[in-house]
Each structure stands twice: as C-alpha cells, then as structure tokens.
Amino acid sequence: MRLTRRTVMAAGAGAAGLLAAPAVFGQGRPHVVVIGGGAGGASVARGLALASAGAIEVTLVEANPRYTTCFFSNLYLGGLRPIESLQFSYDGLTAAGVTVIHDLATGIDRGARTVALAGGAVLGYDRLVLAPGIDFVEGAVPGWTLDQADVMPHAYKAGPQTDLLRRMVEAMPEGGLFVMVAPPNPYRCPPAPYERACMIAHLLTQTNPTAKIMILDPKDRYSKQTLFENGWLKHYGGMIEWVNPEFGGADVEVRPETMEVLIEGEAQPVDVCNVIPAQKAGRIAEIAGVTDDSGWAPIRPDSLRSAIDPMVWVLGDAAQAAEMPKSAVAAHSQAGVVVASLLGELTGASVPPPLFVNTCWSALAPGDSIKLGGAYAPGYDRITQTGSFISRPDETEDERRLTYEEAFAWYDTLTAEIFG
Ligand SMILES: Cc1cc2nc3c(=O)[nH]c(=O)nc-3n(C[C@H](O)[C@H](O)[C@H](O)COP(=O)(O)OP(=O)(O)OC[C@H]3O[C@@H](n4cnc5c(N)ncnc54)[C@H](O)[C@@H]3O)c2cc1C
Predict the structure, then answer these.
(1) Distance (Å, rounded) from C-alpha 369 to C-alpha 199?
(2) What atom of ligand 1 comes closest to residue 104's alpha carbon?
(3) Are 253 and 261 in contact (CB under 8 A)?
(4) Among the listed residues 222, 171, 231, 177, the one whose alpha carbon sits nearest the alpha carbon of residue 199
(5) For ligand 1, is residue 278 a contact (CB within 6 Å)?
(6) Tens digits of per-residue pLDDT, 17-46?
C-alpha cells in the first residue's frame, strides 16, 4: 500500500511538515527522501531542490542538528583548526527549499516505499536516496566494541569522539605512548589515519616531545606512503613508528579495561589507544536490504542507482564505488551525478554523461601538505579510474605551502557547496 496524505498524517506529528505537498507520484510533485545529511546526502538534497526549482519535493532525514566534518578533523587534533570551524547547520538547505527532519531513520519498507523514523513518523517516497556514511564491523578488533569508544575512541565519525581523542592526547603522561589500530581496506578516506599521526605528532612535539606514536596496521601498503614517511622523518624524527603485518600489525587485540594492546599476544601498555575498526555501509542501508555480503551497497556505475532496487540511489561512503575512494570530494562529485539522474527520471531532463573526480589533501605539518587525486568514469559494471595525480617527493617548500593553502580554500568551497 502506498502512503496517502491521511496515513502520513496519522503516523505522527513529526511528519506534519511534509504534508504541504502530496507524497504520491502522479498526484503532485514527486517526493524524494534523502537519508543522511553529510557530504553526499546534503549535496544531493540541496542540489536537487535548487535544480528542480520546486518541481520535486525534497525531504532530508538527518540524525544530528549540526554536522561536524570528518574532513579537517585531523587538523583540529593537531591544533590547527577550532572544532567550531568544522560545524555546519542545515539552515542553508532549508533556505534552498529542502524539508529537513532531524530524526533517525530506523526502518525502510521498499515495497510500500516508506521510511520509518525513531520519532514515530512514517514518510512516503517516490525515490529514496541513501547517504548514511559508515558504521563499524562488529568484532573487527578483538576486545573492542562501540561501548568502549569512550575509553579507546575511534574518532572516525567527527564530533564528541574527535574532541575526546584530542583531550586524551593532551593528558598523556610525559614520554607516553599513543597507539593507533589502523583499519583494513576499504575504509573512509584512505590517507586519514596517516595524516592523523602527523597531526598528533605535531601537537605532541610542542607539549610532550618524548612521547611516541605507534600505528598497528593490517595492511602491507597504504595511501601516499612514501610521502607520509618522508614527512614523518622530516618533521617528527623518530616519533612515529609504523608496524606492518610482518611485525604484528595485523595480529592485534585490545584490552580497554587495563589500557593494553596485545601485539601477536604480547601485552603492550598504552596511554591513548585510537581504534579505527573495519567499516561497512551505514546501518540503515543494511536495514533497507540494499547492501551485499561485502557490507557495502552495490550501485550502477553510471548513476549510483542501487543495483538491488531501481527506486533507490546510494552514494558516498556507503556505496560500492569500486576504484573511487571513500571521501567527501568523491561523495560530493557523486551527488552531482545522482541529482542529474533523479532530474532525468522525475522531470524528463536530459542527463549529461557522469563525471566523477576526487582529490584528497593531507597535512604533514603546518604549511606542508600533499595531495592525491583522480578522475573516474563508469565502466561496464563498476566505476573505474581514468587518470590520477600525486604530489612528488621532491617538491619545494613553496610548492608544499601552496598545496597547504589550496586545501584550506578547498575546504571553504566544498562546505559552501554542500551546506549553502
Ligand atoms: C579523520 C578523517 C579525515 C578525513 N579527511 C578527508 C579529506 O581531507 N578529504 C575528503 O574528501 N574526505 C575526508 N574524509 C572522508 C569524508 O569525511 C567522508 O568520506 C564523507 O564524509 C562521506 O560522506 P557521506 O555523505 O557518505 O557520509 P557522512 O558525511 O558521514 O554523512 C552521513 C550522515 O548520515 C547521517 N545518518 C546516518 N544514518 C542515519 C539514519 N539512519 N538516519 C538519519 N541520519 C543518518 C549521519 O548522522 C551523517 O550526518 C575524512 C574522514 C575522516 C574520518
């Protein structure tokens, strides 16, 4: 049964704001519900509302009243940005004509095309967009569950966790040990753990110069590795140690109760432990039944339409975008493709060929940043990389400073494009 105006109204007061326009395709404006107001979802919601100029009703469901960007959250850890500068309200989306509902989506009935919210409301949709970001794979790091995140924070969803990690680093004893448990591929922002090590080293260099940072890594190689290792040596001497699987990086267990990490069974006392577990699509994608055994949502590479349900689009970190990394730039770029695809579907507008891009900047130290990027195109059954660039190891200090400044300009431009 499709929702009628009456059943939506009966579902709860929270849905009342939606009733200005009918939610049933063919009886009025088509209704697109977007779940997740981050880099991907907020970009789609705002972009679709503006581009359709009122022809499509757009509702955004986002759990939090303010969004804290993961991108640049490492710079907060390093003391280079205040946390408030990373926080955004949804006023710009409301001004663009999006109905913003702050609630948690808890259920999706793809047959009835409805979304249930924790507050009790039920929303009908004609097309659904899922951009819920990531969740963590349970049991990925033995000894760690989400309940222990206040003792061993992940700080991989920005906000209170990021703040907690920063306070823990500041409170480390002199000469103490910071351990990071790095995630296996694929995960959000491949260079982020290694940029985080730089930023924490930068903070410690000023406050606790004899402290050490150890990265326990289940991977043999990681993004921008040579550039990071050169930067660690140049700026932080021997403060950062990277432990690969050969030396126990993949055989790790944590004991939050005693603040220990077991590496190949050998207990190592730690002062701060940053556990970044293996990741999967945000839980609501799984609840919707649009993920597969990989934990991510398979999509059609030309449109980000779900490979499982043609009424659903999935973008950002939750999508299986193959060779495209999980980043805010990638999510925003995918949003442009989703908006065009929805406009084509719902208004008959012509759909331009998809264009996907990504750039990831990483700060090694104040005034010294590196970058990596690529262009992507839809292949037969997956998004494939068509070009790439990366900073050179022999760049001058001036070139690095330019990249550093470019990253700050990028941040301002991207967040303005997402949030208005
Ligand atoms: C430390 C770190 C540094 C990073 N640095 C960079 C960088 O420099 N450059 C870059 O491009 N990327 C960077 N990233 C990656 C970037 O933050 C993510 O790739 C990007 O945010 C993904 O966008 P998204 O829309 O898929 O998910 P998110 O931005 O995480 O948004 C998901 C939203 O969905 C909401 N949500 C989830 N489930 C529900 C539900 N059931 N109901 C309602 N709301 C829900 C969440 O509250 C959240 O606001 C970094 C990430 C980290 C962790």
Answers:
(1) 11
(2) 42
(3) yes
(4) 231
(5) no
(6) 333 333 334 458 999 999 999 999 999 999
Nearest atom, ligand 1, residue 318 CA: 26
Q: Which two tokens stand for residue 107?
A: 């259920």
Q: How far is the CA of 133 from the centre of ligand 1 (A)?
A: 5
Residue whose CA is closest, atom 23 of ligand 1? 39
Which residue's CA is minimally distant from atom 52 of ligand 1? 70
Sequence spans of domains, the chain: 5-135+280-351, 150-277
373 lines ligand 1 (CB under 6 A): no
Tokens read off for 412: 């301002």
Residue ranges in 78-224 assigned as alpha helix (H): 91-95, 160-170, 192-207
User: On the CB side of 50, how many CA atoms lie within 13 Å of its CA?
Assistant: 16
pLDDT in tens, 102-114: 999 999 999 999 9
Average pLDDT of the segment spanning 329-337 = 98
Q: Which CATH class is domain 150-277?
A: alpha beta
| Structure token pair of residue 208 | 């606790």
Q: Which CATH number fits domain 5-135+280-351: 3.10.100.10, 3.20.20.70, 1.10.530.10, 3.50.50.60?
A: 3.50.50.60
Percentage with pLDDT > 70 across the chain? 94
| C-alpha 409 – ligand 1 centre gap (Å) | 20
Please, are residues 11 and 31 in contact by the beta-carbon 8 Å criterion?
Answer: no
pLDDT for the residue 66: 98
Q: How far does residue 188's CA lie from ligand 1's centre (Å)?
A: 8
70 lines ligand 1 (CB under 6 A): yes
- Atom number of ligand 1 nearest to Cα 329: 11
Interval 256-267: pLDDT, tens:
999 999 999 999
Whether 150-277 and 5-135+280-351 are alike in CATH topology: the answer is yes
pLDDT of 27: 57
Give me the amino acid identity at 208. N
- Cα(108)–Cα(116) distance, rounded to whole angstroms? 6
Residue nearest to atom 38 of ligand 1 (CA): 132
